[in-house]
Amino acid sequence: MRAFRFSYNIFGLGSRNDLVDSCRRAERLGYDTVFAADHLGVAAPFPVLVAAAAATERLRVGTLVLNAPFWNPALLAREIVTADILTGGRLEVGLGAGHMKWEFDEAGIAWEPFGARAESLLTTIDRLRLLFADAGYEQQSGLREAFGVAVLRPTQRVGFGGFGPPLNVGGTGDRILRIAPVIERVRALGG
């Protein structure tokens, strides 16, 4: 059995001080994780999580859940790695297939049937795993050599087949439930 944890969500963002106070209070009360949502009309998740981690000492931070069809995997990988580094390895990544059509409409993103969104979620997870495991972009090898720039890599190596931060998959329905065994097989293969 896995350890039981206490977590809470941040939906509103009144001020920096409100966020800092909320996170510090949660940490004092024994909460383990604070999660930020990925919905239109609420604060962008990654800056909120970096600020929450900076305000606390041990509180883990995570997304619950990112709407995978909203994100390009290469750009999402950059966001995840940057946040993982800036939070001192306290980031957890939650991904889902998206369920609010109005958000897709407002963002100008095509609404697809649930099966296509679930497949997009699985593709995003696999692409992130490959990007986290990669040796960096070949086009940047000269920059790395000339200036000693390191390949951007996650701090944590537990999720995404052992190449990134912990991964949580959120959603409803049989298609989402079938994603978990695929992720477990990837983890068992070590990549």
User: What is the chains' assembly state?
Assistant: single chain
H/E element string? EHEHEEHEHHHEHH
CATH topology descriptor: TIM Barrel
Low-confidence stretches: none
Number of helices: 8
Structural class: alpha/beta
What proportion strand? 5-15%
Largest sheet: 6 strands, parallel
- Count of individual domains: 1
CATH superfamily: Luciferase-like domain
Second rung of CATH, namely the architecture: Alpha-Beta Barrel
Overall form: globular
Description of the structure:
With 191 residues, this protein is of the alpha/beta class. It has one domain: Alpha-Beta Barrel (TIM Barrel). The chain contains eight helices and six strands; from the N terminus they run βαβαββαβαααβαα. The protein has helices spanning 16-28, 45-55, 73-86, 101-107, 114-133, 141-147, 174-177, 179-189; strands at 7-10, 33-36, 60-63, 66-67, 91-96, 167-169. Strands 1, 2, 3, 4, 5 and 6 form a six-stranded parallel sheet that branches. Helix 3 links the parallel strand 4 and strand 5. Helix 1 crosses helix 2, helix 2 packs parallel to helix 3 and helix 3 crosses helix 5 (114-133). The longest helix is centred in the middle third of the chain and has 20 residues, at 114-133. The radius of gyration is 17 Å and the shape is globular. The two termini are 24 Å apart. The mean pLDDT is 91.
